[in-house]
């Protein structure tokens, strides 16, 4: 259905031919943001697909950060056009409390500095299967979620 935002984004991004050319059994996880989608909380001017993870279906596991970056480069070399979620920083978490993680999750969005960000996702660099998300309480309160 060409009227479907996800189908239109997939076609516009060129991801389908790039995945076929790539030839591996992978699944991309992402989020479509922009006009007409959940109130366009970041005030984007067009629909944009943001990739945040890649799953190797054959191996049954998520790619590590480094592996994911290499696949993204290859897919773009094959003609795909998409964005990845913004990376805020790389850091080690040791002994952080739930309160401190929630405090870190609060802040302005990289996509629109006037908007509260939804939160932060932490991913283990050496094991793609380990990740968690802290959602900003300010974001939830602002959007009545």
Question: Features of this protein?
Answer:
145 residues, alpha+beta, 6 strands, four-stranded mixed sheet
Kindly describe this structure.
- The protein has helices spanning 5-13, 15-22, 65-77, 98-105, 137-142, and strands spanning 26-33, 48-56, 61-62, 83-84, 119-123, 131-135.
- Strands 1, 2, 3 and 4 form a four-stranded mixed beta sheet that branches.
- 30% of the residues lie in helices and 21% in strands.
- Helix 2 (15-22) crosses helix 3.
- The mean pLDDT is 90.
- The longest helix is centred in the middle third of the chain and has 13 residues, at 65-77.
- Strand 2 and strand 3 form a beta hairpin.
Give the gist of this structure:
The protein is α+β, with helices and mostly antiparallel strands. The chain has helices spanning 5-13, 15-22, 65-77, 98-105, 137-142, and strands at residues 26-33, 48-56, 61-62, 83-84, 119-123, 131-135.
């Amino acid at each position: 259905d060409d009227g479907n935002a996800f189908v239109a984004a997939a076609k516009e991004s060129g991801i389908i031919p790039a995945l076929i050319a790539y030839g591996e059994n992978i699944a991309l996880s992402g989020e479509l943001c922009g006009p007409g989608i959940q109130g366009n909380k970041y005030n984007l001017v067009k629909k944009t697909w943001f990739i945040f993870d890649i799953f190797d279906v054959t191996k049954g596991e998520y790619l590590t950060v480094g592996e994911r970056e290499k696949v993204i480069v290859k897919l773009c070399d094959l003609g795909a056009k998409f964005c990845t979620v913004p990376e805020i920083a790389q850091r080690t978490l040791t002994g952080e409390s739930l309160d401190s993680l929630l405090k870190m999750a609060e802040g302005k969005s990289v996509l629109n500095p006037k908007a509260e960000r939804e939160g932060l996702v932490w991913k283990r660099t050496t094991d793609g299967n380990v990740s968690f998300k802290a959602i900003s309480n300010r974001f939830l309160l602002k959007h009545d979620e």
